[in-house]
Amino acid sequence: MSPEPRQTVPSYILVAQDFLGLANPPPASAAASPTSPTAPPEMSGTTTKALDAAKSTSQQAKNSIRTMTEETSATTSSLLHHPYARAALPFVNGGLAGMTATTCIQPIDMIKVRLQLAGEGAKTGPRPSALSVTRDILAQGKVGDLYTGLSAGLLRQAVYTTARLGFFDTFMDIFKARAEAKGSQIGFAERAGAGLTAGGLAAMVGNPADLALIRMQSDGLKPMAQRAHYSSVIDALTRISKAEGVTALWAGAYPTVVRAMALNLGQLAFFSEAKTQLKAKTQIGPQAQTLMASAIAGFFASFFSLPFDFVKTRLQKQQKAPDGSLPYKGMADCFRKVAKDEGLLRFYRGFGTYYVRIAPHA
């Protein structure tokens, strides 16, 4: 009876096992046995060359990927450290921060505007509160009405806050460089000057978006037949420009600039000063310092700017009567009429709501 033929493993399986590291090396006795199957010499040499070539190609691919990753990281780093990019970062960061805050506090801003416009021209009568205004808005429509004018608010922040914080950081860098050259430190006067200047410049740029925001938020106070029903900030700006002229987009610009300067004096200057003092005179942590400094800055910003914000809202909301007249001739006239007809405390109506609105931006 003839012996069964010996089953041998195909050479291509041996090659694959060797490449993947799955094959165990045969013992020395098996290697020396004359009955052990061996691959032909020419196939063994070809397999070795193929494996070496595959390993070399794999290593080259890894090196190429590593090189491309390093070059991409280096390019990104070089772009971020480019002088123009470094100069633009404060503006971009400021705009994104402002837009994020606006998305969160838009309902509060809506309530604030309605409080400022309630009881216009009347010293007596019902005194609305934030809760009653919220209830009225929800009764007339839906929860989404609290976000009326959000597109205008986002555009305003993209323009105004981007410029405001960007200008402030730029001015502060200039003051810091001068102070370091003199061997001193910047003080409250420099911070206040930077805040006032940055706020005034940014307010002029952002006034059209601010006016569109007020028009969209106050539209619901008109009789149904007189409402404009603006669909977006672009629609509001376009229709206002056509109906009242392009210059109407800068209505209330003067109180807007003064308000912005007062707001920035409180927000930026007092925030920097409060944080410096808390760091020097207290042992609280960095996060607590930031929160406390924001609360302090928000209070002073609200106190200084609310009367001008009140007048700004009244001036930007007003439209010409059929005879071409306006309720207020300007900022001074609005201050005078409100103080006479509604009382001085009317300028601070809704202070709590305004503070909650301002604090996140501080």
Q: How would you describe this structure in keywords?
A:
362 residues, mainly alpha
Summarize the structure.
The chain is an all-alpha fold. The protein contains 12 helices and no strands.
The best one-word shape is globular
**Contiguous helical run count:** 12
User: Hey, roughly how much beta strand do the residues contain?
Assistant: under 5%
What structural class results from the helix and strand content? mainly alpha
Tell me the Rg in angstroms: 35 Å
Average pLDDT, rounded to a whole number, is 81
Largest beta-sheet characterization: none
What is the helix content? Answer: over 70%
Task: Report on this structure.
It is built from 12 helices and no strands. Helix 6 (150-182) runs antiparallel to helix 7, helix 9 runs antiparallel to helix 10 and helix 10 packs across helix 12 (351-358). The protein has helices at 11-20, 28-32, 41-80, 83-117, 130-140, 150-182, 188-218, 233-244, 253-281, 286-317, 331-341, 351-358. It has 362 residues and is an all-alpha fold. The protein starts with 10 loop residues before the first helix and ends with a helix.
